[in-house]
Amino acid sequence: MRLILTFTLLVTPGIFAAEKRLEFNRDVRPILAAKCYACHGPDEEKREGDLRLDMRDAHLDAKEFNHRISTTDPDDVMPPPKSPKGLTKAERELLRRWVAEGAEYQDHWAFLPIQHPSVPAPTGRNAIDAFVADKLREHRLKPAPEAAPAALIRRVFLDLTGLPPTASDMTVLSDWSDEKYEALVDRLLASPQFGERWARHWLDAARYADSNGFLGDGLRPNAWRYRDWVIEAINRDLPFDQFTIEQIAGDLLPEATREQFIATGFHRNAALNTEAGVDKEEARYQNLVDRVNTTGRVWMGLTIGCAQCHTHKYDPITIRDYYSFYAFFDNTEDRDEPKTKAQVLAEVSKDRRQTYVHLAGDYTRHGPDVTPATLSSLPAQSGPTRLDLARWLVSPQNPLTARVAVNHIWLHLFGAGIVNTPDDFGTSGDSPSHPALLDWLATEFMRNGWSRKQLIKFIVMSHTYRQSSAHREDIVQFDPLNRLLARQNRIRLDAEILRDSALAVSGLLTRSVGGPSFRPPLPEDMFDVGRSKGWQASPGAERYRRGLYIITLRSTLYPMLTTFDAPDAADACVRRERSNTPLQALTMMNEEMFVEAAQSLALRALHESSSETSKRLQTLFRLVLNRDPRAEELSRLLAFHAEQKARVQSGGPEALKVLNFVEKSVPPAEAVEAATLVATARVLMNLDEFINRE
Q1: Which of 148, 179, 251, 660 is the most exposed place for a label (fewest CB within 10 A)?
Q2: pLDDT at site 122
Q3: Are 100 and 11 in contact (CB under 8 A)?
């Protein structure tokens, strides 16, 4: 039976006057998208009762609508009892209230043109603080005080370079001021390590790896050239619009340079099935599907892939839209460019293909012809080439790309985006916590030439970024996820940054930038299954390079990185998960690199401080945590040190084996002390304060 809903609303005036009027995008659409659109949304083939709830229906009957969401009759209630997504009592009440207020619809916020909202009354250090303070005032909350200078310095070092500050970096604490902080930010943005840190974020999205994947998992010996292009582009602050164009269509630019060809390696990063007997046309189809889905996810924050087999269930993306977008890539070919020694993307010049809708996503079933075109629900582009597509992506008329890019940057500086579903700006994704701020930043990003560095500096100079991350009882009940930003977020370090930090404080880190990937030591039993054989760990200082340069073989991922939630390069990853498992603690205590770092760190403390135990412990503490220990912390360290020293002394030569890596550098008279400091270093490197960015 069709449910006919008519907007004939007879409501007592003022019945909801005491409450703030509902907003469709903020309050109603998330409920309808989660609970109703699968059966009453854009997908005409799956639509039940010929009813759409994702857009205004000309016949919406308030009485019938309220009956369907309120009744206990299993034949009438919506969603039906068999649905796993029933409405809660609060959701039913909100929908009844929406109907009573007139059931007004809005176009989805992410598809609306980007506006440049006026900044609220000035508060804090810049416009960001004004927007955030405006939201906090609405909920009677106050921002947190600024973080202690030492904590802020460590935070901005880790966020901008992925490395902790050194002892000499901490000397800026004397006469600390806004000017000193700004000068520090400028120095970090100009450092080569900035490009390394932010390249890792982009390489996650680019599903970068050094091998093909699948069973054969053949090596890609020159894949690192694309990785180095990303580092260099970020370090020279290549504007994000040009950064986009070169990766999507660098080969089509007039007089394309060697670097612009290398940039097209973005779409050569995906897994590639090279097995004997593989259906080449099917493999080509899957490869192109990956390019479409990745482009939609990374630049537009849309789950375009959901329209590969049928019209999207939640967003206005038809299957024809999908294959029209696919058509931009249908005449590309993978090419190994001799002059660049890199894997690049190129356009087929002859025998060009006609693109079809692939019915039900089956590469063998051809439906209607299509030509290259962007999504019908967004402003149109002109031109059929990938270069036209790339320019459309960064056009000011495109409402998505600038918002998505800004949200990615915000995510990496706060641990959560303004939109908390960074790869889903569609109707089933989260609404922005601060929509006006998002649009203001997006317009400023474009106005300032799409400069990543300018945007990052503006954010980290704000009070919102500089706030303390200390626990706040006053927001626990009301805003437990800190979406309103009444404080900073405490963030577990990414896998590579945790490893880099341990190497940095121990003095082992090799800081060379770029070049071929290296192989860390791996347990032999990792190669009992699969075809990866003959693993040889890189020699000497090479193995102590930054985690960014660890070779990524899809069949032989470095266990330490996966334990701490590094992605597997199977798909574009714009937000890493952050788990908390016992295996992580075991890795920190026993993984070879962390053990060597603890041994080297103990040696540093031995050499860089006086022989007085308390001085050595303070030196060790400052190296690891970038601050002096409090009195009670030093007292506990002294007690632990005394306990461990007694254990080492009673253990004899066996207990001294803990020095393994640094044994030859320790004078025999200092061996017991060095072994004791190794145990102390391992404790400090396992503290939450080291593993997390405050």
Answers
A1: 179
A2: 83
A3: yes
The DSSP 8-state label assigned to residue 126 in this structure reads S
Torsion of CA 537, 538, 539, 543, to 10 degrees: -100
Q: How many domains does the chain have?
A: 4
Do 160 and 49 share a domain, yes or no?
Answer: no
368 sits in which H/E element:
strand 366-370
The Cα–Cα gap between 196 and 204 comes to 13
Instruction: Assign 3-class secondary structure to 577-596.
Output: CCCCCHHHHHHHHHCHHHHH
Residue 3 has pLDDT above 60, yes or no: no
With beta carbons less than 8 A apart as the criterion, state whether 62 and 99 touch.
yes
Give the domain extent around 460: 143-174+399-491
State in Å, rounded, how far the first CA of the chain is from the last one: 57
Say how far apart CA 585 and CA 566 lie, in whole Å.
Answer: 16
351-399 residue pLDDT tens: 999 999 999 999 999 999 999 999 999 998 879 999 999 999 999 999 9
> At residue 83, what is the residue type?
S
Tokens of 638: 């002294």
Q: Strand 332-337 and strand 491-492: pairing? A: unpaired
Q: For residue 197, tell me if it sits in a domain.
A: no
615 within some domain: yes
Phi, psi of 419 (to 5 degrees): -100, 120
What is the distance between the alpha carbons of residues 318 and 511, in angstroms, rounded to a whole number?
A: 49
Same domain assignment for residues 76 and 90: yes
Same domain, 102 and 34: yes
Give the Cβ contact number of residue 74 at 10 Å: 9
The answer to whether 296 and 304 are in contact (CB under 8 A) is yes
One-letter identity of residue 634: L
Are 297 and 410 part of one and the same domain?
no
What is the H or E stretch that residue 134 is in? Answer: helix 127-138
Residue 101: Cβ within 10 Å count:
17
Cis bond upstream, residue 384 (ω within 30): no
Residue 568 falls within a domain, yes or no?
Answer: no
Of 393, 415, 445, at which residue does a domain stop?
Answer: 393
Q: CA geometry: angle at 520 spanning 537 and 625, to 5°?
A: 145
85 CB burial (10 A radius; 0-12, 13-18, 19+): exposed
381 and 408 share a domain? no
Which one-letter amino acid corresponds to residue 226? Y
**Of the residues 393, 418, 445, the one at which a domain ends:** 393
Q: Write out pLDDT tens, residues 127-152.
A: 999 999 999 999 999 999 999 999 99
pLDDT over 90 for what percent of the chain?
78
